[in-house]
Amino acid sequence: MTTQSSITRTDPELAALLRAEERLQADTLRLIPSENYASAAVLEAGASVLQNKYSEGYPGRRYYEGQQNVDPVENLAINRAKSLFGAEHANVQPYSGSPANLAVYLAFARPGDTVLGMSLPMGGHLTHGWGVSATGRWFHGVQYGVNAKTGVVDLDEVRDLAVRERPRLIFCGGTAVPRTIDFAAFAEIAEEVDAVLVADIAHIAGLVAGGAHPSPLPYADVVTTTTHKTLRGPRGAMILTREEHAREVDRAVFPGLQGGPHNQTTAGIAVALHEAAQPAFRQYAHQVVANAAALARELLDRGYDLVSGGTDNHLVLIDLTNKDVPGKVAAKALDQAGVVLNHNTVPFDPRKPFDPSGIRLGTPALTSRGLTVDHMPAVADWIDRGVTAAHKGDEDALRRIRAEVRELMAAFPAPGLPTA
Predict the structure, then answer these.
(1) Is 398 labelled a binding residue?
(2) Which fold does the domain 279-410 belong to in CATH?
(3) Which of 19, 62, 159, 235 is catalytic?
(4) What is the CATH number of domain 44-276?
(5) Average pLDDT over residues 56-67
(6) Rounded to two decimals, what is the model's pTM?
(7) Where does 271-314 show beta strands of DSSP type E?
(8) Has residue 1 got a pLDDT over 50?
(9) Which candidate in 200, 221, 275, 305 is catalytic?
């Protein structure tokens, strides 16, 4: 297994960058909701000798020999995924979330078919039929949004669009959805129009696994997810399906879209799924939600405009219009202060996507470090002071926040990172 010392000997320039990234992840407050800390065990699996193996095909049906150990590794990941999520079938080979979603198109639709998904500016994902994505170019994408007053998905609009457009696929889920997804309601709509319901739970998979968010498995025909984010695994993906769809999904992944799986990632997924099956992970998932709710309340008390008025999960989306600070300006200032989040469009945003009105933040990573609701007033205070400093151009205030963040982070070591 490659070690830091061997990288240092072989490529000191890269080694220096890796050490710098370790320090950055250790002493900043990471609030990007799609980021987390993988455990040392997950990282070790990802750097294992499985990096050397090529394994086109599936367990017991490979195109290469020498799979005596690879097949059991993939079967372990498959069985753990099925057990953890209550799925009839699991494919753990997709390289990431977008290819996993593309495999769904290949399995269930043909170019030109209609797909109904959440609008990207409203919180959806590119691969749910948005125009700049291949899914919006090869298929007829129709988008639903959120209610202008509540900031929540308008299910009446979803049904009206579905009845009118008769989509082949309906996607639910997204990248900036702070509220509980009503999978049962989506399933009723999909059944009414004879559509395949796809639940994209990339952001909330860990919450689903930990019982902190309802599961789509009883309702959706197919479920896609990444394996990092709230699940705390490596950068990979999975597709969970009913047994009746297993063959078409597997064929869509391989040979439809990709060649050999990344076996080292599969091993990391297996480790992460094992960790997610432990009682401590269930506590973690619920703490993520509790922390997000507490942080949302603190931000509301400080006069922030939260999309949908709060959160049910790990994610908070803030419209900074009333603070007179563009989202990108605020995000860059907070980055200087060691509070790492991202600028983001908000529903009905009048600004351009690369210079939007909002910021998006979440609690998965800080919860992995052991922070609780007791720390959320301090986190909200740093965000508030950082946004105010961004408005005033106060560099000294950002430096003061940076020192405070570094001090708190030192008291809560990050999983998987080297200790000083």
Answers:
(1) no
(2) Aspartate Aminotransferase, domain 1 (3.90.1150)
(3) 235
(4) 3.40.640.10
(5) 97
(6) 0.96
(7) 305-306
(8) no
(9) 200
